[in-house]
Design goal:
The protein is an alpha/beta fold. It contains ten helices and six strands. Strands 1, 2, 3, 4, 5 and 6 form a six-stranded mixed β-sheet that branches.
Length: 229
């Protein structure tokens, strides 16, 4: 049974109703100091990051089964899918939800080599999700685990997109949390991600000033950071 019951999660987020969780969580995620303190508070409850802590909480309290047909992938199925992609250093998760499949792949990647030899910059995870309610939990799950990832918030089929988040472990250290950046609504970004239409105003939010890994220079050209040599 997961440690993160509705009562525990609501208490950690300082809310009195689970319906308030996505908005409150997103607010905290955009403040680095508050976000990392929240991460430490969650880790004090459980340090087992091999699975999605929010699977049951979200499915019971947040899932939009009628309007968006949301029903999350069982953990056992996520593990089977992960075995099919053994050896790859990337993962593409459409309709990612809160990140169960991506977390299973990340955990398998961590276990595939020596813990101290694991470098986050050697791996990259691509996630797409439509639900406004799911995206804050997805961002939380990626950043607390120190992943490098994209989260495309919008319709994967029509390519009508609200925001694109770039998650990066700035220290390239498995023991560190990731930063959260929001990509600009530029022509270069729209072309790279095949975006047909932006459906929300751009948000200026850049935390990373230096980037690493195979996609670094492409990202740098789009967010105006310091180019990797």
């Amino acid at each position: 049974m997961p440690d993160f019951t509705e009562e525990v999660v609501n208490q950690l987020l300082d809310i009195d109703d689970a319906f308030k969780a996505p908005g409150k969580l997103m607010q905290i995620l955009m403040d680095k100091s508050q976000r990392e303190q929240l991460f430490r508070n969650f880790l004090a409850v459980s340090a087992d990051m091999s699975f999605d802590w929010f699977h049951e909480y979200f499915e019971d309290e947040q899932a939009q089964r009628k309007t968006k047909k949301q029903d999350f992938t069982p953990e056992a199925v996520a593990k089977v899918l992960t075995r099919l992609t053994t050896g790859s250093h990337s993962n593409y998760d459409v309709a990612a939800g809160t990140g169960g499949i991506t977390i299973a792949k990340w955990w398998a990647d961590c276990l595939s080599i020596s813990y101290w030899d694991y470098k986050p910059s050697d791996y990259f995870y691509y996630c797409e999700e439509l639900s406004d309610r799911a995206v804050p939990f997805l961002l939380f799950n990626l950043a607390i685990r120190g992943m490098n990832a994209y989260v495309i918030h919008g319709d994967s089929l029509s390519r009508e997109i609200k925001q694109i988040y770039f998650i990066q472990n700035d220290h390239d250290d498995v023991l560190q949390f990731s930063s959260i950046n929001i990509m600009p609504h530029s022509e270069a970004v729209a072309k790279e991600f095949e975006i047909k239409k932006w459906t929300e105003p751009a948000i200026e939010h850049i935390e990373s000033t230096e980037l690493s890994g195979p996609v670094a220079n492409m990202i740098l050209l789009m967010i105006g950071g310091k180019r990797v040599k």
